[in-house]
Design a protein that fits this description.
The chain is an alpha/beta fold. It has 2 domains: 2-88 and 277-295, NAD(P)-binding Rossmann-like Domain (Rossmann fold, 3-Layer(aba) Sandwich); 90-269, 3-Layer(aba) Sandwich (Rossmann fold). It is 30% helix and 17% strand. The chain contains 9 helices and 12 strands. A 7-stranded parallel β-sheet has the order 8-7-6-9-10-11-12. Helix 1 (12-22) crosses helix 9. The chain starts with a strand and ends in a 14-residue tail after the last helix. It binds NADPH dihydro-nicotinamide-adenine-dinucleotide phosphate and oxalic acid (OXD).
Length: 309
């Protein structure tokens, strides 16, 4: 039994060190080093190179080192008959809620406009909005969306949310299913996307959706770039139906420098860093699953392959 870590960023060694710190006896390898492929039972991955999972004949579990798993389903060579797990973690959840709150406040109090004006030495007061007067709509009321919704109600926002199955969250108006999407959108002034990327949600942030939002609505996409139809966003910002957008995720990451989002005055960009797995917090659940795997027990946070999330 062994764990292989597969990721293409600079964090591979820090994940390996963290696992060794929590369990000095674990056999954990970076996929870049010499390692016994047939002894690997768990692959702990984040945006792995496509095809790399097929090299482990005795793999028993694919563990995502993040909350999202869309990139695993996007690899047609990934084994299809073993469990996929994802991370559910209090910091991953609360960091997202804090990020969304920061973005909303910065927009309501016009910090985005003032930063732009400052680059031109341009003095121009602009009316601000009060929290109590603003309705935030959250698409996706799972681990991240539900806490974000609850936190925003505590701050004083009017909050509503939309999900596949009906939810009940204190002080949050909830909608479910495609039939109720229009009603949800019609009264949403700030739209936060916290959906998983699946065939059902791909491209959902498009012209037809934007049209159903009130004029002046603001878009926050912290889920996946694949949710957004980029050209439709630009069209609806340019025709002034939308007042602006804050994006953390993109079709291609890093976003190529020629992409029009970079220079768009109504788009605020962050580099897919709204909420990041904290190794000290998440390694215990990964090692617990590794132990469960060895003992044939049900795994924590297993993904429903049929739903794709
Ligand atoms: P969950 O799986 O816990 O929640 C997903 C929510 O979306 C659920 O409420 C689900 O409904 C709803 N949903 C799924 N499909 C549909 C659909 N077709 N129509 C309506 N609602 C739907 O996910 P998390 O909250 O943990 O994470 C959400 C996403 O956030 C991740 O998949 C990832 O892409 C992104 N993310 C981004 C980060 C960043 O830094 N930018 C960090 C972490 C995550 P139901 O409850 O009925 O199943
Ligand atoms: C995640 C992410 O899914 O960081 O955890 O996007």
């Amino acid at each position: 039994m062994g764990i292989v870590i597969i990721r293409q960023d600079e964090k591979i060694d820090s994940w390996k060190d963290a696992i060794t710190r929590f369990d000095p006896n674990s056999k954990v390898y970076s996929y870049l080093e010499e390692h016994p492929g047939d002894e690997i039972s768990m692959a702990l991955i984040w945006k792995h190179p496509k095809g790399s999972l097929a090299k482990y004949p005795n793999l028993k579990c694919i563990a995502s080192a993040g909350a999202g798993v869309d990139y695993i389903f996007a690899d047609s060579t990934a084994p299809k008959n073993i469990p996929i797990t994802r991370l559910v973690d209090p910091y991953l959840t609360s960091d997202m809620s804090e990020h969304v709150l920061a973005v909303i406040l910065s927009e309501l109090k016009n910090f985005n406009t003032y930063k732009l004006n400052q680059t031109k030495s341009y003095w121009k007061p602009k009316d601000y909005r009060r929290i109590k007067d603003v309705t935030v709509g959250i698409m996706g009321l799972g681990e991240l969306g539900a806490l974000t919704a609850a936190d925003l109600t505590r701050v004083g926002f009017q909050v509503q949310g939309w999900s596949r199955s009906q939810k009940s969250i204190s002080n949050v108006k909830t909608f479910s299913g495609t039939d109720s999407l229009s009603e949800f959108l019609n009264s949403t002034e700030i739209l936060v996307c916290l959906l998983p990327l699946t065939p059902a949600t791909e491209g959902i942030l498009n012209a037809s959706l934007f049209r159903q939002l009130p004029k002046g609505a603001y878009i926050i996409n912290v889920a996946r770039g694949g949710h957004l139809t980029d050209a439709d966003l630009i069209a609806y910002l340019d025709n002034d139906h939308l007042s602006g957008a804050c994006l953390d995720v993109y079709h291609q990451e890093p976003l190529p420098e020629e992409h029009p989002f970079w220079q768009h005055p109504k788009i605020l960009m962050t580099p897919h860093y709204a909420s990041v797995s904290d190794t000290n917090s998440v390694i215990p659940q990964i090692l617990e699953n590794y132990k469960r795997l060895q003992n044939g027990k049900p795994l924590l946070n297993e993904v429903d392959r049929k739903n794709g999330y």
